[in-house]
Sequence to fold (124 residues):
Amino acid sequence: MLYLFSGEQRKTSVAEVLKVLAFEQGTEVEIDEVDICRDPSQDMAILAHQQKILQAVEQGLYSAILITPPCSTWSRVRGANTRGPPMIRSKQWPWGFPWLARRFKIQIEVGNTLVRFTIQVLLV
Fold:
């Protein structure tokens, strides 16, 4: 199984729970967990790293794929109040407001790259 954007290793992660459930059923599951939190070489914002994953998926190396892309720029929580980060997308501008300051444009570009990559993996 491939688990993209798995986050840091933790006892209650989806992967750990799946491993426990598999063990209880008398089997095991092998899970490749991919996330920049685990290893800088797993930065899916980098095209070469994306291509490596896409190639493995295209070759049929995984029987299941779980993807939990980062939602930091896609979350509706942004702009929910004046204390948090501002909204940088909307229904009208799903790929980001065109008038954003540079620091927000960088966040938008990374978020868009990761969502486009997620879509590519799902379409393979």
About this structure: Residues 36 and 47 are 14 Å apart (CA to CA). The radius of gyration is 17 Å.
